[in-house]
Amino acid sequence: MDAGNGKRGIDGGIVRLLIIVLLGVGLISVPWLTHSRLVAGEEAVDAAWADVESNLQRRADLVPNLVRSLRQYMTHESETLVRLVRERAEALSEALGEAHEIETSRIAGLDAALSQDLGRLMRQAGEHPDLRSGDQFLRFQAQLEGSENRLNVARMRYNEAVREYNAGLRGFVGRWVAEPMGLRSRDYFEASPAATEPFAVEF
C-alpha cells in the first residue's frame, strides 16, 4: 500500500509539474507569437504604404510632361488650371519627401485635390483636336492611365494590410501585447470619389 501510495504521489507530482510547465510555456509563447505576428503586420503595412507613395510620386512626376504638352494649346483661361495642377503635384511630391511617418489623411487630401484638378484638365484637353491626336499627348495619357491603375491596386493592398493589422491589434491578446510595445492602429487610405475616376478624354 505504501509503495502504491508513493507511486501515485510521484505520478500526481509529475502531472502537476507538467501542467505548470505547459502553462508557463503558454504564458510566454502566446504573447511572443502575438507580438511577432503584429510586428510582421506592421511591416506589411509599411511596405504597402511605400508602394502607395511610389505610385503617387510617379503620377506627380508625370505632371510636368502634361504641362509641357498642354501649355501651347491652353487658352488664357486655362492657364490658371495648368498652373494649379503643377502646384498640386509639387505639393504632393514635397509632402511625400517630408513625411517621416505614414500620414494618410494629409497625403490622401493632396492626392484627392490633384486627382480632381487633373480630371478637369484632361477634360479640357479633350476639347483640342490637335492636342488629342498628337503622339506626345497620347503617350502621356497612356502613362497616366497606367499610373492610375497601379495606384489603385497599391491603395487596395495597403488598406487590406491595415485591415489585417488592425484586426490583430483589437484581439484579446493583441490589445494586451500592443500597448506596452507601443504598437498602434493605422488609418486607411480614404481617397475621395474623384481620386478613383479615370482621366478619360472623350474623342
Automatic annotation (TrEMBL):
It is a single-pass membrane protein. The chain crosses the membrane at residues 12-33. It is found in: Membrane. InterPro entries: LemA-like_dom_sf (IPR023353), MamQ_LemA (IPR007156). Gene3D superfamilies: LemA-like domain. It comes from the Bacteria. The keyword Zinc does not apply. Keywords: Membrane, Transmembrane, Transmembrane helix. SUPFAM superfamilies: LemA-like (SSF140478). One of its GO terms (cellular component) is membrane. Belongs to the LemA family. This is LemA family protein. It comes from Halomonas heilongjiangensis.
